[in-house]
TrEMBL record:
Name of the protein in question: Palmitoyltransferase
Catalytic activity: L-cysteinyl-[protein] + hexadecanoyl-CoA = S-hexadecanoyl-L-cysteinyl-[protein] + CoA
Membrane spanning stretches: 20-41, 53-74, 174-195, 215-241
Highest classification ranks of the organism: Eukaryota, Metazoa, Ecdysozoa, Arthropoda, Hexapoda
EC identifiers of the protein: 2.3.1.225
Residue span(s) of domain Palmitoyltransferase DHHC: 129-250
Membrane topology: Multi-pass membrane protein
Length: 446
């Protein structure tokens, strides 16, 4: 179901009933706020505070905190998840071609061809452009399909039932402010009602009847909510400072260059903070939208303009890997990493060729070139007797297999699938969306 279908579904009787049902947690929060307002303003301040100057200051700071709290909460609820622009939507004829492609490589080519002019750097585990089979769109970076909202959500953090909305690019600032002001509200109410709470247990609290119990429960409930909020607010402050969403904290995004990298959007704490709260410090703590960007493209900590590829373990180091070339005595094999069936080959100095019996050549004449996904590594043993001695010490007297010319290679794609539980006969691997989605190959367009 795409964004338009979702809006049409909400207008049906069933959709309206579900919308009302989803607002029950929100109505509960507003009921608690309304009760706390009566308990604090009427029972605590007006009826039990004898010092009028203290009462005025208590009510002043209380209402300032309450206004900021409710403002942030309301903005979090009412802010739309946004709409993915039409240029990200794949035409129906292309979708049919995609679903009926003969093999995963053909599907990848179709998606890559359509997304060639789109600012996408995120990929699926097999390196394909991310595609939503329900919305029929190329997923923008950091976007995910929400099964509750039934649409793709830009920079989706999570779906929160307490706001009946997806926390996303457009309301994430409001959500963090809502948590912060809710925590301040609870702590302020608990702190200012502590004296009357103690007086209640001493039997010295003014008033009779239910008024005293309102103050008692006001203190308990404010403490209870404060304990719940402090961990949640602290966690989201951490996510803001590392520029990461809740979904990305559980599963690192996969980049076109570099592979899986949980710090792929980490620009530094101040820059990360400004990504969410904006550049104008005067508006940082007001629930006014000031976040950077358009919700579809984001600055990254690594250069994504190149065409590099990542290895099976998600290594993001694109520097020379000469230091990784070592001898593993326990395996009795020299492992060489190769990609796309590029096999390591032997080149001889001065045009010499090995004989048919593959006789060993002097170290001074051998240059081994190993091609991998990061480039070519050349290891030369010419006039380097020290390196030869080190290699001999590492290998020892163990038995060697093979002819010294070719070596067994374990393919990266096979390692990735075995580690992650995928199978080589599956069609194109799509990223699992929030709350799960059906398999891509099961979908068909009539």
């Amino acid at each position: 179901m795409g964004n338009d279908d979702y809006r049409r579904h909400r207008k049906t009787p069933c959709g309206c009933c579900m919308s009302v049902f989803k607002f029950i947690p929100v109505l509960f929060i507003f009921a608690v706020i309304g009760w706390s307002y009566y308990a604090y303003v009427v029972e605590l301040c007006v009826l039990n505070t004898e010092n009028r100057i203290a009462m005025i200051f208590m009510l002043l700071f209380y209402h300032i905190t309450l206004v900021l709290f409710l403002w942030s909460y309301w903005k979090t609820i009412l802010t739309s998840v946004g709409r993915v622009p039409d240029q990200w939507r794949i035409p129906d004829e292309e979708v049919n071609r995609l679903f009926h492609a003969d093999n995963p490589e053909a599907q990848k080519r179709i998606l890559n061809n359509f997304a060639r002019n789109l600012p996408v750097t995120n990929r699926t585990m097999n390196g394909s452009v991310r595609f939503c089979e329900k919305c029929k769109i190329i997923k923008p970076d950091r976007a995910h399909h929400c099964s509750v909202c039934s649409c793709c959500v830009l920079k989706m953090d999570h779906h929160c039932p307490w706001v009946n909305n997806c926390v996303n690019f457009y309301n994430y600032k409001f959500f963090v402010l809502f948590l912060g002001y809710a925590l301040i509200y609870c702590l302020y109410v608990a702190f200012t009602s502590l004296h009357d709470f103690i007086q209640f247990w001493k039997g010295q609290l003014n008033g009779t009847g239910m008024g005293r119990f309102h103050i008692l429960f006001l203190f308990f409930i404010s403490i209870m909510f404060a304990i719940s909020l402090v961990s949640l607010f602290g966690y989201h402050i951490y996510l803001v400072l590392v520029n990461r969403t809740t979904l990305e904290a559980f599963r690192a995004p996969i980049f076109r260059v570099g592979g899986p990298d949980k710090n792929g959007y980490n620009l530094g704490r101040y820059a990360n903070f400004c990504e969410v709260f904006g550049d104008d410090w005067k508006l940082w703590f007001l629930p006014i939208f000031t976040s950077r960007g358009d919700g579809m493209s984001y600055p990254t900590s690594t250069d994504q303009s190149g065409g590099g590829r990542y290895n099976a373990m998600g290594d993001t180091n694109t520097n020379s890997i000469t230091n990784r070339l070592d001898v593993q005595p326990t395996d009795k094999l020299i492992d060489a990493i190769a990609l796309n069936n590029h096999q390591p080959h032997l080149e001889l100095a001065d045009g010499q060729m090995p004989s048919n019996n593959h006789a060993a050549l002097p170290p001074s004449q051998v240059i081994v070139n190993i091609e991998n996904q990061l480039g070519a590594i050349t290891v030369s043993n010419a006039n380097n007797t020290h390196n030869a001695e080190v290699a001999n010490d590492q290998i020892g007297d163990q038995t060697h297999f093979g002819d010294g010319i070719s070596y067994p290679i374990r393919h990266l794609e096979e390692d990735t699938e075995s580690l992650l539980g995928y199978h080589s006969d599956t069609r194109i691997e799509l990223e699992e969306d929030f709350l799960g989605e059906g398999r891509f190959q099961d979908s068909r367009i009539p």
